[in-house]
């Protein structure tokens, strides 16, 4: 295939994976719509169960001073079985369809990324500008979700991930698309691969952790407002998506573990590989470029997040807020610098 054909293939694959992500989102929304009919324990997301009822005991009463005893009912055969509720089966079916569609979409997404790199002359890594970085970053978010799906039982994150990837891809194509061009001289270095790969992996992991932090804050507020109803067992129960989210402790744990993984990767990308690449490209390890400064700010915020959890035992709401501040600095570094500083940054190409 020619370079032009690879570029066409990449564009078509982006459109195709967006369609499949959309179908996956619909399947997951249908899953949650079906499960909405079943009340769950709001603190755990597990189906609420009615307490076991004891068999009726002999009633003792007094009628004109004499005891009256209730005879057991006469049975003529087996008791009729309770009607089977197929709600759980339908929900599971939609969930499996959504997961399968997400896997297919991620595979097509990978084709889009690889063919984008092969479309250049000569072939190169597919993250030489903002469009390509976003295309690859969204793939990492989807792949990270799929890799962690079973370990953390992330079915509850499915509509958030597929919706985020779909919307980001649409914005990427509409606002950031640019034709394939050769790499700039400053990017002609093996450190480009090392630095940007680490940055993309960290960005994807921070984004997944940020999703869990947002859901933690939303569910905490939902519970505080009393949307969950009292159950006969004394446990809070409710219906819908927020009720079916894991408990606050589980959400906090997912957020912490993904961000704890991303932090050393970001440290390597921003404070080790980045300066080494800057030395090769511009002759200095640190030039106080806006993107360098904001990358360091992001590192400081997440360092404070992990330090607070390790030393002061910060968990829950406070930790989630700090994590979201870190995520905001990360995405401002990626998008805001180019729009607010323009050509004032040596990283304006990406």
Q: Please, could you describe this protein's structure?
A:
The protein has 350 residues and is mostly helical. The chain has 2 domains: 143 residues, no CATH class; 165 residues. The chain has 9 helices and 5 strands, in the order αβββααααββαααα. The strands form 2 sheets. Strands 1-5-4 form a 3-stranded antiparallel β-sheet. A hairpin with a 5-residue loop joins strand 4 and strand 5. Helix 1 packs antiparallel against helix 2 and helix 1 packs antiparallel against helix 4.
In terms of topology, how is this protein built?
Layout: H1 3-35, E1 40-41, E2 60-63, E3 66-69, H2 87-118, H3 130-148, H4 158-176, H5 190-224, E4 229-230, E5 236-238, H6 241-244, H7 248-282, H8 290-312, H9 317-341
Antiparallel strand pairs: 1-5, 2-3, 4-5
- The stretches of 5 or more residues where confidence is low (pLDDT under 50) are 49-71, 230-235
- Give the strand line-up of the largest sheet: 1-5-4
**Order of helix and strand elements from N to C terminus:** HEEEHHHHEEHHHH
How much helicity do the residues have? 55-70%
Terminal CA distance? 28 Å
- Determine the mean pLDDT: 82
Q: Provide a count of the helices.
A: 9
Beta content: under 5%
Radius of gyration: 27 Å
Provide the number of structural domains.
Answer: 2
- Output the structural class: mainly alpha
Shape: flat
Q: What is the count of β-strands?
A: 5
Largest sheet properties = 3 strands, antiparallel
Q: TL;DR of this structure?
A:
This protein has 2 domains: 1-46 and 87-183, no CATH class; 186-350. The chain is built from 9 helices and 5 strands; from the N terminus they run αβββααααββαααα.
